[in-house]
Automatic annotation (TrEMBL), chains A, B:
<dbReference type="InterPro" id="IPR050147">
    <property type="entry name" value="Ser/Thr_Dehydratase"/>
</dbReference>
<feature type="domain" description="Tryptophan synthase beta chain-like PALP">
    <location>
        <begin position="81"/>
        <end position="381"/>
    </location>
</feature>
<dbReference type="Pfam" id="PF00291">
    <property type="entry name" value="PALP"/>
</dbReference>
<dbReference type="InterPro" id="IPR001926">
    <property type="entry name" value="TrpB-like_PALP"/>
</dbReference>
<protein>
    <submittedName>
        <fullName>Threonine synthase</fullName>
    </submittedName>
</protein>
<dbReference type="InterPro" id="IPR000634">
    <property type="entry name" value="Ser/Thr_deHydtase_PyrdxlP-BS"/>
</dbReference>
<dbReference type="InterPro" id="IPR036052">
    <property type="entry name" value="TrpB-like_PALP_sf"/>
</dbReference>
<keyword id="KW-0663">Pyridoxal phosphate</keyword>
<keyword id="KW-0456">Lyase</keyword>
């Protein structure tokens, strides 16, 4: 019924290239990082894409992620894996945000987070390239998306998460068929275990940006935004930044769309939002550095952005700077306040990382970094339901007289 | 950007009528139950709808719930309330279900359940009709949807839920701005408190089917299904049935679509699925009764369908019988098994009530009630993330040597 999933449509991948050195790598082969240990980027014959597909033709397709097929790496329709990757809605938050603030609610995707975008693509490519066993370090949501998609196509998964990952995330990963382990450390400690196993040939390493295709899936956030805004991008994007795949992916999407002639050279200012308890990108941005050092003693309630070190640090910093944006840190109290205000006043329950973007927007408004007339998009990267909430109320005794005035 | 929310489009409501006696009631006035204590149904001038809107025109609109505006009761665009009511995807579950089985994944709606459909409409109408204070009994998901939409438009809400409602639901309701109370009883005990307060004029009663508009919102499940199936309905629908608003609403939708000439007279067999620990509709169906008595000692892990008495019982039974379907009960072990299989093998985490529909489908397949060649839709009414899952695994010590073979 959705021909995005069944129609044979070409992919226009030509090759991959090192994001640091530009060195070329062959498409249609299994790759990890480049020779210098940096992410590989997928390149397309965009002239051919433009000849094969127009914005008008695109607008007649169902609006899910797979409508962007010509700008995605999967070659064969049979390798598509899907759990219903809908176009996520943009929800105004006029009271807690402002008249021109939209939340892109990524919690509506399969497994309840934007991680589905990256993992659906990476798993489809793993299937296409014959991978049978995958391991991954995760703060929770990426592991859930990996488990779901990999189980769906019979690929074995082993997932490692920090010891204090919320129970609901760990259980979800296990329910969806992965073998999951807690580790007494942070996500990069989990990543070290995954890396060691990969070196021994035990599994394929699916860490953020260590395989080339998650970024292609995340790219669809930028493609969708462009279409949803009628091919005229918003003025600013606030993006919760851990590994930064989405920010890098959106930036890549905008470039590809401009080369296709589908958008102008106008770009949103990209704001990379981090928690002040784990803000390596903010520190590097402010110091004018090209790379970000590991953040020691990382701590924040926004676990999804508790990432002490990002292998794509220079790509994040480059996109933020090119865009005229900034890297911004916000404290946990401001995050909690933003989540509470948005839920109570606009009826939208954000995840803490989404709350961080609202907190950062408010601070940016206060400092004059953004203007309230500007069209702004905040990314709510996951459903707020996966996260701790305040304790619940006392019980009313239905057998006793009820004091209605006190309810 | 979504003109479904901003365009002025007419509503074609002519009047309301009692579902039992057919007595007419004026539109554009606040109503509860009819004079004989039964639900009111909203009626439209379908000839005028047909003159104003075609299937082709409809297909050019964004696919969300509000594209059905001409078949919905809201008169004024300013009264629309929205948190992004997307068209929910249909996800195949080939391994745990079968080649022709699709899950309509209602967990993607705002607040994570199909309750959003009914409540977005009921709250918009409450806003239109000047209601300022609403109370509701809930097993969790309806209360969350009510709280979110009502808070969004400044309507005060008081919500009562059974004592053992999962913590996550109660907290979600509170976060979204409602005053919420646990009550030592079941949902109809909560309903009695709401009813008493309503009689005293303290609030408007938003219990299932006690106001006329939730059913109009739920109707969109049937409208969407028709559009998604290319106006040729599936052979069978398995629907988790507590209050039954959705089943009644879909049946009403199919009637309206046929009168519009958009579908034929062909109908799916409707299977009302209940938990065997709380199966009043199943008991009444099997006994050939028109009404269902209260089920005593109700118990099931599928709390959303733990509804001992439904005010719309006769409407559910009538639809099921007219359709050639059945009411089916399934035990908790079969529900858990279905949830586990679907998550582990197809990567889709159902809620227990959704699991109940898969369990019922499997049993119906075994008994020959359905054929594996038939096109079947199962309703997953909420995200599986709101529900208890098996405990999570032990911690791996990253400082000790790791036995990779044991992972």
């Amino acid at each position: 019924m959705n021909d995005n999933l069944t129609a044979d449509r070409p992919s226009f991948v030509t090759h991959l290239e090192c994001s640091m050195t530009g060195e070329r790598y062959d498409a249609d082969m299994l790759h990890g990082l480049s020779r210098v240990g940096r992410p590989l980027l997928v390149r397309y014959d965009l002239d051919a894409v433009g000849a094969a597909l127009s914005r008008d033709a695109l607008s007649t397709r169902p609006t899910d992620l797979w409508r962007w097929r010509e700008l995605l790496p999967v070659r064969h329709t049979r390798d598509i894996v899907s759990l219903g990757e809908i176009e996520t809605p943009m929800v105004p938050i006029p009271v807690s945000g402002g008249a021109n603030v939209l939340v892109k609610d990524e919690g509506r995707l399969p497994t309840g987070s934007f991680k589905a975008r990256g993992l659906v693509m990476a798993v489809a490519m793993a299937k296409e390239l014959g991978v049978t066993r995958i391991a991954m370090p995760t703060n929770g949501n990426a592991g859930a998306a990996l488990a779901a998609y990999a189980s769906r196509c019979g690929i074995e998964t082993i997932v490692f998460c920090p010891e204090d990952t919320p129970e609901i995330n760990v259980r979800e990963i296990a329910m969806q068929g992965a073998r999951v382990w807690r580790v007494n450390g942070l996500i990069d400690d989990c990543g070290a275990i995954v890396g060691k196993g990969a070196t021994e040939g035990r599994w394929f390493d699916f860490s953020t940006l260590k395989e080339p295709y998650r970024i292609e899936g995340k790219k669809t956030m930028g493609l969708e935004l462009a279409a949803q805004f009628g091919w005229d991008l918003p003025d600013a994007i606030f993006y919760p930044t851990g590994g930064g795949t989405g920010l890098i992916g959106m930036w890549k999407a905008f470039d590809e769309l401009e080369k296709l002639g589908w958008i102008s050279s106008k770009r949103p200012r990209m704001y990379a939002v981090q928690a002040s308890g784990c803000a390596p990108i903010v520190r590097a941005f402010e110091a004018g550095e090209e790379h970000a050092e590991r953040w020691e003693d990382a701590h924040t309630i926004a676990m999804g952005i508790r990432v002490p070190r990002a292998v794509g640090d220079f790509l994040i910093l480059r996109a933020v700077r090119e865009s005229g944006g900034k890297a911004l840190g916000v404290g946990d109290p401001a995050i909690l306040k933003a989540v509470e205000d948005c839920a109570r006043r606009d009826g939208l329950l954000l995840c803490p990382e989404g709350g961080a973007t609202l907190a950062a927007y408010r601070e940016a408004l206060r400092t004059g970094e953004v203007d309230e007339d500007e069209r702004v998009v905040l990314f709510n990267c996951a459903t707020g339901l996966k996260y701790p909430m305040p304790p619940s109320p006392q019980t009313l005794d239905r057998h006793a007289p009820i004091d209605f005035d006190a309810l």
